[in-house]
């Protein structure tokens, strides 16, 4: 697949974000009563119908629920028809070593993409066996280096855990614990135009000092917005698209699967 590295003045970049697919080694595996591989396929079909030409595909964590190599292989196979430059980053349910094994002979785990007038940087915020996120020093250094060495590009920074409050009381403690350190780096670089994350299973679109803050629905079930305790809504799975313009502006939106019928079964296994 092509990986464009030259600057251009006239071509927008179309980016698609898939997040939190929670796949199992068993293709029929289910979570809260939902077959997660099936719902991922529905979202991919929607992407293919709506976005005939994609430049970059980002998978922003929790690709697998069980952390198995087979689950990541399923994700890789399912998304292959999208025919885009693709990158993965890990979430709190992921096994980084198994992700890397499934990504063998590819660039899926590389932390950067240069395309058009943009650079996309992907960070690992996962902490082994924990739900919250944390950026180790090497990740903060990677971020600072990636931003500083490309001052003429516009930047999107991606991670799994939310670095700001999203309005769900139960989710806040399992966000990025050292968000202040993250923002201390970001605030040094005005060329950062957007920060993009997963984890929260719901859309989020706000601004911080002119910087766009974005999260996306899960490709499986959704967390109910503004809930004090863990609560799953009946909203449909979906994805986020971003059109990155050469001048540093962007347009974005969320699209969801139609005719989705799901009632969560809270007795069908722990999330």
From TrEMBL:
InterPro entries per UniProt: Calcineurin-like_PHP (IPR004843), CNP_phosphodiesterase-III (IPR050884), GpdQ/CpdA-like (IPR026575), Metallo-depent_PP-like (IPR029052)
Keyword Ubl conjugation annotated: no
GO MF annotation: an example: 3',5'-cyclic-AMP phosphodiesterase activity
Record key words, sorted: Hydrolase, Iron, Metal-binding
Enzyme Commission number(s): 3.1.4.53
Family listed: Belongs to the cyclic nucleotide phosphodiesterase class-III family.
Full protein name: 3',5'-cyclic-AMP phosphodiesterase
């Amino acid at each position: 697949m092509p990986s464009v590295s030259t600057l251009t003045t006239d071509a927008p970049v179309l980016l698609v974000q898939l997040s939190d697919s929670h796949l199992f080694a068993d293709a029929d595996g289910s979570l809260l009563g939902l077959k997660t591989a099936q719902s991922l396929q529905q979202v991919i079909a929607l992407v293919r119908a709506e976005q005939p030409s994609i430049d970059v595909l980002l998978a922003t964590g929790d690709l697998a629920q069980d952390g198995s190599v087979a689950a990541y292989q399923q994700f890789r196979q399912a998304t292959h028809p999208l025919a885009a430059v693709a990158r993965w980053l890990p979430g709190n349910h992921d096994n980084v070593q198994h992700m890397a094994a499934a990504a063998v002979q590819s660039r899926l785990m590389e932390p950067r993409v240069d395309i058009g007038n943009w650079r996309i940087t992907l960070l690992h915020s996962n902490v082994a066996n924990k739900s919250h996120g944390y950026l180790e020093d090497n990740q903060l250094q990677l971020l600072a280096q990636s931003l500083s060495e490309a001052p003429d590009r516009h930047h999107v920074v991606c991670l799994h855990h939310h670095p700001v409050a999203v309005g769900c009381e139960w989710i806040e403690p399992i966000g990025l614990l050292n968000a202040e350190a993250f923002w201390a780096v970001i605030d040094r670089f005005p060329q950062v135009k957007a920060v993009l994350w997963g984890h929260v299973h719901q859309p989020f679109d706000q601004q911080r000092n002119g910087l766009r803050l974005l999260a996306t629905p899960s490709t499986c079930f959704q967390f109910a917005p503004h809930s004090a305790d863990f609560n799953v809504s009946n909203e449909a799975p979906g994805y986020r698209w971003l059109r990155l313009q050469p001048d540093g502006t962007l347009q974005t939106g969320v699209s969801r699967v139609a005719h989705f019928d799901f009632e969560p079964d809270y007795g069908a296994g722990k999330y």
